[in-house]
Design brief:
Helices cover about 60% and strands about 0% of the residues. The chain has about 350 residues and is mainly alpha-helical. It is globular, with a radius of gyration of 22 Å.
Length: about 350
């Protein structure tokens, strides 16, 4: 059955010869940077993985990153757009000892696949040029397929619990004035979307905490190492507060993954890439908190997310300061500085 009927419009206004829009430039730039980093990290994971299923999963993820980068390079070159430096073989030491157990690789892939889908799905309604539109449609579809493989492995190997089960409503009901109570009066149980976002934020943050703990363990620069330790402690406190909200309702939550980090202190990644990665991951948390607040109804939960948001923003700001001080931060495409232009 064909639900959406085709509309026979001419496609001349979305050709591959028109100029890239700001949305197309920005999304392609961010996508390229992220995939250049992911390619390095997954290449390192493949040096130590022993589980054949997880190895196949990593190989699929690496192949996608390489394919996406090739397609983006083609678009950049067509436009004489300078290809971002991003990250390369210089930022990864493939001979470094194992830093993570195999199980962690699957959790990590789920996290970065979520991040990728977020970028691609946001891009789809914003891009118009035919080749860019096709690229993001393809990226979203293939990354969704990868996510299905990740979830199958997590479930089949017993590496994860699904979101909590709650009762099916007996009838349609309408809320009352106390629906938003969180600190005073009668406080209602968590509703399904609040539970969903607590689960999602816990899942993301236990993965993030294990990663930043590992990065603090191997970072060379003392200032960066101290920032990682600060981020680790911040993430741990946030996770514990989200877990407590679920446990107060007698609901299960994902567990910490800290035990999946080995005791190696030899860095497999450059400080530059590790700092960028954590800056990027913490920035993604800000978006996740925004989504969580948007569907929340209780004042105590809103306050919890606002506090988390302020602390995460402070971490990203500190990380960006160091990144800029080191001369590592590439400038994304920008609007023209009209006030600096003058006729010759």
């Amino acid at each position: 059955m064909q639900t959406i009927k085709p509309i026979p419009l001419s496609s001349y206004k979305t050709s591959t010869t028109e100029n890239l829009t700001s949305a197309e430039m920005g999304k392609l730039w961010a996508t390229y940077m992220g995939n250049s980093m992911g390619k390095c990290i997954i290449s390192y994971f493949l040096q130590h993985v022993q589980d054949k299923d997880i190895k196949a999963l990593l190989e699929n993820a690496l192949a996608l990153s390489e394919e996406f980068m090739k397609q983006m390079k083609d678009i950049f070159e067509k436009e004489n757009f300078p290809i971002p430096i991003g990250f390369s073989d210089e930022d990864v030491n493939l001979s470094a000892p194992r830093l993570f157990e195999d199980e962690y690789y699957v959790h990590y892939l789920k996290y970065i696949t979520k991040a990728g889908l977020s970028i691609y799905n946001v891009a789809v309604p914003l891009v118009y040029r035919k080749d860019v539109k096709e690229f993001y449609n393809y990226s979203a579809a293939t990354t969704t397929n990868l996510m299905d493989q990740i979830k199958d492995i997590l479930m089949n190997k017993g590496l994860i619990i699904k979101p909590p089960i709650i009762p099916i409503p007996e009838k349609v009901e309408f809320v009352h004035y106390d629906f938003m109570n969180g600190f005073l009066g009668q406080v209602r149980p968590l509703h399904a979307l609040e539970i969903t976002h607590f689960y999602d934020n816990i899942e993301n943050n236990v993965t993030s905490k294990a990663l930043i703990m590992a990065f603090a363990q191997v970072a060379k620069d003392e200032k960066i190492r101290q920032l990682f330790e600060k981020g680790r402690n911040l993430t741990s406190k946030n996770v514990e507060s989200y877990m407590q909200k679920l446990h107060n309702e007698n609901l299960p939550s994902p567990t910490f993954l800290d035990d999946l980090v080995t005791t190696s202190t030899i860095p497999p990644f450059s400080d530059k890439m590790m700092l960028f990665h954590k800056m990027d991951m913490f920035s993604m948390k800000i978006r996740a908190f925004g989504n969580s607040v948007a569907v929340n109804g209780r004042t105590d939960i809103a306050m919890l997310y606002v506090k988390s948001l302020l602390k995460i923003q402070a971490f990203v700001k500190d990380a960006m300061k160091i990144y800029i001080e080191k001369g590592w931060m590439e400038q994304p495409p920008m609007a023209a500085m009209r006030d600096k232009l003058a006729a010759e």
